[in-house]
Amino acid sequence: MSxxxxxxxxxRLLPHPLLFASALFALxxxxxxxxxxxxxxxxxxxxxxxxxxxxAAISRKVLAGVYRGEAxxxxxxxxMRPVDQSARSTIREAFTREVLGQSIxxxxxxxxxxxxxxxxxxxxVKVTDEEVLAxxxxxxxxxxxxxxxxxxxxxxxxxxxxx
Length: 163
Hints:
Blueprint: H1 3-13, H2 17-31, E1 45-50, E2 57-59, H3 60-67, E3 81-85, H4 90-100, H5 104-116, E4 124-126, H6 129-138, E5 142-147, E6 156-162
């Protein structure tokens, strides 16, 4: 097999190697941003959305779809914009386990496959509750999770998570 044939075989497996490498680098960099401070078993969260988002509750199944890029609109037609926290966040670890039924590593693997296949982009990542809340206030379709103790500002609402 010639070197040129070998290269084209790899190109078919990874159609966008620079995009894949960039996404991998970005995910690894985000994973290192925030040190863990609370065991995940003790972390509790609540779901928060901009007040323009319709409804007072969201089902676990729908929210999981939002974070997998499957559900894209609120019932009033507003585009959903999910926001994750740092991969090192215990709040994200608890959310990912309890809502998505996955570990953070499984979720990151899912997104790497989606990106490399050119299908979807992962949720935006913010490092702190405060950054998440500021983004939610400024973006009408945004939805995320924050620690149970976070102070929810005007313009946002807490959504009940139902099964």
